[in-house]
Amino acid sequence: MTPLLSLENHNEFIHRHIGPDEAEIASMLETVGSASLDALVEDTLPAAILGGTPCGLPDAVTEEAALAEIRAIASKNVIARSFIGMGYHETITPKVILRNVMENPGWYTAYTPYQAEISQGRLQCLLNFQQLVLDLTGLELANASLLDEATAAAEAMAMARRVSKSKSNRFFVDRDALPQTIDVMKTRARAFGWELIYGTAAEAKDHEVFGALFQYPNVNGEIADLESAIAAIKAMGGLTALATDPMALVLLKSPAALGADIALGSAQRFGVPMGFGGPHAAFFATKDEYKRSVPGRIIGVSVDSAGNPALRMALQTREQHIRREKANSNICTSQVLLANMASLYAVYHGPAGLKRIADRIHRLTAIFAEGLKRVGVTVQTRHFFDTVVVDLGAKAHAAFEAAQAAGYNLRHVSSSQLGVSFGERASRADVKALWTALVGEAAKGLDVELLDQERVAALPAAALRTDAILTHPVFNAHHTETEMLRFMKKLQNKDLALDHAMISLGSCTMKLNATAEMIPVTWPEFGDIHPFAPATQTRGYLELVEGLSEQLKAITGFDEICMQPNSGAQGEYAGLLAIRRYHEARGEGHRTICLIPQSAHGTNPATAQMMSMQVVVVACDDNGNVNVEDLKAKAEQHSKNLACLMITYPSTHGVFEEAIREICDTIHRHGGQVYMDGANLNALVALVKPAEIGADVSHMNLHKTFCIPHGGGGPGMGPIGLKAHLAPYMANHVVAPIDGPHRGQTAVSAAPFGSASILPISWMYIRMMGGNGLKKATQAALLNANYMAKKLAEHYPILYTGKNGRVAHECIVDLRPLKAASGVTEVDIAKRLMDYGFHAPTMSFPVPGTFMVEPTESESQAELDRFIEAMISIRMEIDMVQQGEWPAENNPLRNAPHTQYAVIGEWERPYGREVAAYPLAWVRDNKFWPSVGRIDDAYGDRNVVCSCPSIDAYK
Fold first, then answer.
1. Element (H, E) at 666
2. CA–CA separation, 357 vs 201, rounded Å?
3. What is the C-alpha separation between 150 and 243, in angstroms, rounded?
4. Greatest CA span in the chain, whole angstroms?
5. What are the E-state strand segments in 217-366?
6. Vertex 508, ends 345 and 544: CA angle to 5°?
7. Of 486, 529, 636, 839, which has the maximum CB count within 10 A?
């Protein structure tokens, strides 16, 4: 009889997450020539790094048990009404968007749209986002989002320095900007060696600066007259940036109309939950003349092979991997899923709906303020949209507590002042409740209806915009739920995501994002919490963060975890920041040399440059490993000034460096620190701890190794692990400081715990897998990669291998010999894979002319075999080109991808329609049709258009 423990099946989720079953594992082990998963690990990883301390995580639990545990944690959060403001507001996510986008794997499991032909849906949605931003800001060019408002402001400052004609080293900051924004700007400016000058807008003209940031409206709700200040900055050759509120811009004069060069802010209140700080899409717009200096991604309009309009990422595509330390920024992603939600929010409501929402917010705020004035309260904010500061004198603290007791969180401005910010969910009942909390019995004589009849307002006519917004048909055609549902489904159908097929992108780890992991994200207990809510209301979040931190410590061996960075690149920055602060604290601020292997991610040198470090490149050997002798020589040469080494492990070339301990020891011997890029942590989890092999600090991509979905190019999280000696120097926060030795350190992101609302995903994954499950997942990732490398090696060269001919969790397929022999390029193969129903692997990185393939542990042998069969079939097609059976310029590879329209249209090609559309029999069962033909990238960069074309273009 089967024991009860077995019937309870606590390991059930492990088998749901890992693709190959036991029979498939046995079959693949036989193919690669290993007796067991443990033997494969011993064959693959250097013996010198094996045998460390076990990760010691609790055993796995079922999905239901994990959900019950996290439900208990969530219940410790108190959902109060948030009138705090400071860049975060209550909003309403339209249910049709919540269910069909935020909770839909067709949207959240897609990858960054590098392969544009199978990404047209989210590209169109992002183009709509850019159009929304252009309309609201009045500027000429917008990007497809940045990480958060504070980092967008820091990016604006850096862009101002790049393009400003001023010789000054100083930047002016509005003292009434959001405090978290000022905090992040302090961090960034100090690293670059710039001086920040603070003051009111009127004082900006008194300083020689290369640029300025003003908040519009400011943190206290005031809508200041900024035109003269902006003109003064421009007169001295500087650039001006306005940090602004998109809902306010529905009513207010645009930043462009005020003369601003840059506008930025958060799109959170366009339907994205507060989520204790994120993830949220920041927007960024500027003038067309600065388009080559803009950070982040820009979606542009180009044409496909049939001459039809088609969308693609323009200009900045893979900028970091091309320009490296000369890149505009180290941020190589965006907040795509959240930008899409904000874009769809605007589509759903349209210009009339948005104006109604904005007018309602303002009317409620104005009625609230006028009521307080009528009973003798001083309202200090004169011209406002949604926020006022009121002076209650000695009664302020009691009023604050009365509001909190009534379920409302307000902002303590000073001992006598409170800030009150209204959001989309506010109602007349809230106005009455807040009156009562703030003035007690005096509120009984106040009447919302009577004040409304007086049409009280606080926006002077001169402050209002007079131009029309959102006139494009896309914002005026989908206001019923039926139309909206079909519109979103139409976009979704244009995109290939993990719900269709494997996405084998090397270094990107497109694994299962299990539904049980995703469910808690949209619970109100996580979504409806302001990042600056009182700690007594956020005990659940704090327990979650602490629990995940302990899990990550157990996995990595680090002493502390900083959960603030909200992307992998932000994690790199936070890690180097801790190293720089450490050296400075020891009186060794002269240590600015950063060694980086030539195989490294492009974000590494870009990050080092942002930390004002000097990049020294270390050579790699013929096998893709760091050239140890070159590293030793350069460490010796720069010994007195060596700050750190940035190294990815296993390497970006997909192999385990045998000499990793020797490499780390060398850096430490010369007084440097080792920063380990955690992009490839999926090959180490529960086998090797980075801290035990020599890393001092490392970032962890939760959107790779720990199952947060990529969301079409974002959201992400990149927390860092640090050894104890670096812990005092990790990022903290000015508004909501975290206790610890790092108290007082400035921030790298807007919220204290970054994109906190997606942390439940990683917590759930680790809890449901347990230590044994995580170990098996890593082993399965190694097995799948070696199985694929073994099978593909019969048809394509595998560029690098390590010990015993093994690869790590990914491998590089060398396509250069085929290109030389046949003329077929890596681009041709990538586009042809679309006809087989697959997204291409990572193309031309880290080696031009190659594919980097990472199958992940979540794919079954059957799916791997389909991909392998597709690659073999393509290899045979290349042979036909090489042998002259198909012309070099007219064959299925050069003409790929084949749209449905092309296949049913006129056909004068030297191969049949079936070869084009159904190259293998099983493609018929699950055919994915690219919605456009091959896109002309060069045309798109020569003719940069980042706004919505005529609606006819989409027909």
1. helix 660-669
2. 29
3. 9
4. 92
5. 239-244, 262-266, 282-286, 298-303, 309-314
6. 65
7. 529
Determine the Cα–Cα distance for residues 712 and 887; give it in Å rounded to an integer: 36
Cα distance between residue 804 and residue 43, in whole Å: 6
Here the tokens at position 265 are: 């802010």
Measured CA to CA, the distance from residue 272 to residue 109 in angstroms comes to 18
The sheet carrying 850-853 orders its strands as 811-814, 850-853, 842-843
Q: Which residues of 417-428 are buried (b: 16+ CB within 10 A; e: fewer)?
A: bbbbbbbbebee
CA atoms of 253 and 262, how far apart (whole Å): 15
Residue 642, token pair as written in the block:
């060596």
Q: How many residues does the chain have?
A: 955
pLDDT tens-digit profile of 622-664?
888 899 999 999 999 999 999 999 999 999 899 999 999 999 9
Output the six-digit token pair for 890: 């007219």
Give the Cα separation of 545 and 757 in Å (integer).
10
- What tokens appear for 891 in the block? 């064959």
The phi, psi pair for 3, rounded to 5°, reads -60, 150
Which among 301, 297, 337 has a CA at the least distance from the CA of 122? 337
Residues 284, 144: contact at Cβ < 8 Å?
no
CA–CA separation, 61 vs 912, rounded Å? Answer: 53
The phi, psi pair for 88, rounded to 5°, reads: -135, 130
Percent of the chain with pLDDT over 90: 91
Task: Answer yes or no: are the C-beta atoms of 9 and 60 closer than 8 Å.
Answer: no
* Tokens (6 digits) for 564: 């603030």
Q: Is the pLDDT of residue 320 over 50?
A: no
CA 242 to chain centre: 23
Quick: pLDDT tens for 727-778: 999 999 999 999 988 999 999 999 999 999 999 999 999 999 999 999 999 9
Instruction: Compute the distance between CA of residue 144 and CA of residue 74 in angstroms, rounded to an integer.
Output: 32
Pairing of strands 720-722, 811-814: unpaired
- What are the angstrom distances between the C-alpha of 149 and each of 133, 177, 709? 14, 11, 22
Q: State the Cα–Cα distance between residues 844 and 138, nearest whole angstrom.
A: 38
Provide the Cα torsion 138, 139, 145, 147; round to 10°. -100
* Distance separating alpha carbons of residues 722 and 728, to the nearest angstrom: 10
For the residues 791-796, what does the mean pLDDT come to? 97
pLDDT number for residue 612: 93
